[in-house]
């Protein structure tokens, strides 16, 4: 029997305007009538009631919420609204109009705009369909609302083989909103053209800017050093990409990928793309902009990764700026760990400068000299770029190329910490001047190492990971004593929410406590609810969940379960979309690794059969949102006053 949690979100309002409750699409007439009758009421508090983890085959194979929101009004009345998951579409659904043909939402297109064909079964060619929808941004332009969605990769081809080097894609979907209920429906959709930036490589998480653009990502950048060896997997992946995308292997270049693409939508509903080369090249999980609209923090996914910060020259413009990397000084091993941060300037550049370096055909061997063993004048580094310790020296005059094309390797040479593991989502709490970062797995490079390279992080292994709080400040200098032009520089970090590993699987196959977060990934923060929403990417939980954590009350609530084996992705708390509130949430690769689970609580064969008959095993992913939340924008000054009262 799993413990039911409750999340109290005490939100007192002295509002002068009405904030009606969101009318849930179930029992529409009832809720619409009640919303109308409540529209002049003022909200005193909101509380999430947690759902239990799924316990039946029926629940384990679906995406659903049994959580609810209890709204208490200042007149003493109380109303409880159920949360519900609303699926907009599956990645296999033919909603995209492309050159006069309707194609699946998750199908990638090549440089000519044609769907990319899976020919792994020669007599049955068909379009590739990604089973991995990820980041969402909801943007309103010219009175119309659009959803930008990532398709991170395709797990398997039609022959059942793993797929590597396949170009990725994004979809722009216009959605209509029911004015009474807030329900969203698909109007039309189209693929976003990345041909002007050489295609799109593994887009993972992303973020929405305050000025209405989408910041995407390119994760697991190909290793440019290994690419120079034609027998390497890096060479095979990049040339495969070039063949699929350009139909020309000679156009393969690893430095085309590993960047932040920014997508803008115009009033005609057309999307345009730029890649920001001045923000550095590494395994971009997400780029989160701070409230000053010029400072950004990143997730760098993988083992032996690095914490980066970018400070743009101008607000709302990431075409030029300064890139920094963090040095971690550990201060505690408790509760996930803690440490102070010191920032090292890697360099300043413009997008045009770095693009010019790429376009002239610069290779890794043009940037670095290498040695095969410890050698005077060479620095030993261990980064995610290579599985081995490398001995590197930057060639004269190539510092800028090193800083922006090989940001992690160059940062490690300067002494920045390259020992973070699975650094995933980033979110910002504007009022409290905090940021949050998910470290999905605290193991490997975050444990004590053998001493052959720098070893700043030495934490106990925690397979289930932790979510960290970053404490932001002003007036900070970099390691060389120069002032950093930002009021949002992380000065320290500490574990906020930690998982709990189990010594043996439970009856559902979980190897981490299902009533605590395991392997946090996507993060999104709601300022007026004081709530950090957290999505899981965990093999330790048989079903992954979306959670809500109140940063004031420190209470946690499970609010969504996704299908067995699936990852919860695309998480975004949208607090004010035409007076409605949504939590965007996707799932990807359902059924993955199910065969390796030790499950006795339900019939495992029936569970597998139910997955195959329903969504299929790694056949498709879903794009949708959670509804049932109270609508309307909460006045910050009134909320903060109540929070101060609570803290006293």
UniProtKB/TrEMBL annotation:
Residues 1-23 form the signal peptide. Residues 628-648 are annotated as: Disordered. The keyword Membrane does not apply. Pfam families: PhoX. Keywords: Signal. InterPro entries: PhoX. PANTHER family: DUF839 DOMAIN-CONTAINING PROTEIN, SLR8030 PROTEIN. This is DUF839 domain-containing protein. It comes from Falsibacillus albus.
């Amino acid at each position: 029997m799993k413990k039911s949690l409750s999340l109290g979100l005490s939100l007192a309002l002295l509002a002068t305007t009405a904030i009606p409750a969101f009318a849930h699409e179930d029992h529409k007439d009832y809720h619409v009538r009640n919303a109308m009758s409540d529209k002049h009421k003022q909200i005193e508090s909101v509380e999430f009631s947690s759902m239990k983890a799924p316990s039946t085959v029926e629940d384990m194979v679906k995406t659903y919420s049994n959580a609810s929101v209890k709204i208490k009004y200042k007149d003493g009345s109380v109303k409880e609204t159920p949360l519900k998951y609303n699926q907009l579409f599956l990645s296999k659904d033919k909603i995209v109009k492309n050159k006069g043909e309707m194609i699946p939402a998750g199908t990638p297109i090549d440089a000519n705009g044609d769907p990319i064909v899976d020919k792994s079964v020669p007599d049955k060619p068909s379009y590739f369909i990604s089973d991995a929808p990820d980041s969402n941004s909801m943007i309103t332009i010219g009175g119309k609302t659009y959803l930008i969605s990532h398709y991170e990769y395709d797990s398997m081809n039609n022959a059942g083989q793993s797929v590597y080097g396949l170009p990725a894609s994004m979809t722009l979907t216009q959605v209509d909103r029911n004015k009474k209920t807030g329900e969203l429906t698909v109007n039309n959709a189209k693929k976003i053209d990345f041909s002007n930036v050489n295609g799109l490589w593994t887009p993972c998480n992303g973020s929405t800017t305050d000025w209405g653009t989408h910041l995407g990502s390119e994760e697991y950048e190909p290793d440019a050093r290994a690419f120079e060896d034609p027998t390497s997997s890096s060479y095979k992946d990049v040339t495969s990409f070039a063949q699929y995308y350009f139909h020309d292997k000679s156009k393969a270049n690893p430095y085309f990928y590993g960047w932040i693409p920014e997508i803008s939508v115009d009033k005609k509903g057309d999307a345009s793309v730029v890649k920001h080369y001045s923000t550095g090249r590494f395994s971009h999980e997400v780029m989160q902009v701070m409230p000053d609209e010029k400072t950004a923090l990143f997730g760098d996914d993988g083992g032996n990764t690095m914490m980066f910060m970018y400070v743009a020259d101008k607000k709302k413009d990431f075409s030029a700026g300064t890139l920094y990397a963090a040095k971690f000084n550990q201060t505690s091993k408790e509760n996930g760990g803690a440490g102070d941060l010191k920032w090292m300037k890697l360099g300043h550049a413009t997008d045009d400068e770095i693009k010019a370096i790429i376009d002239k055909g610069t290779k890794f061997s043009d940037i670095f000299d290498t040695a095969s063993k410890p050698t005077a004048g060479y620095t030993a580094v261990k980064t995610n770029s290579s599985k081995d310790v490398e001995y590197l020296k930057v060639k004269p005059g190539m510092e800028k190329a090193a800083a922006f094309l090989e940001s992690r390797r160059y940062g490690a040479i300067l002494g920045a910490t390259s020992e973070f593991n699975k650094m995933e989502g980033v979110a910002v709490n504007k009022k409290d001047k905090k940021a949050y970062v998910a470290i999905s797995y605290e193991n490997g490079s975050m444990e004590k190492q053998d001493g052959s390279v720098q070893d700043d992080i030495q934490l106990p292994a925690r397979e289930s990971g932790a979510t960290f709080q970053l404490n932001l400040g002003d007036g900070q200098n970099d390691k060389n004593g120069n002032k950093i032009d930002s009021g949002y520089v992380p000065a320290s970090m500490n574990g906020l929410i930690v998982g709990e590993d189990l010594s043996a699987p439970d009856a559902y196959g979980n190897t981490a406590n299902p009533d605590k977060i395991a392997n946090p990934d996507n993060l999104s923060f709601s300022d007026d609810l004081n709530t950090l929403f957290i999505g899981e990417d965990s093999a330790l939980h048989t079903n992954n969940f979306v959670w809500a954590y109140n940063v004031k009350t420190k209470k946690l609530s499970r609010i969504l379960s996704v299908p067995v084996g699936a990852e919860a992705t695309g998480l975004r708390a949208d607090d004010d979309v035409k007076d409605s509130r949504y939590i965007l949430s996707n799932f990807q690769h359902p059924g993955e690794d199910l065969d390796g689970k030790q499950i006795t609580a339900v019939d495992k064969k029936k569970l597998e059969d139910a997955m195959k008959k329903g969504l299929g095993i790694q056949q498709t992913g879903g794009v949708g949102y959670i509804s049932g939340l109270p609508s309307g924008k909460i006045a910050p000054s009134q909320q903060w006053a109540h929070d101060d009262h609570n803290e006293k």
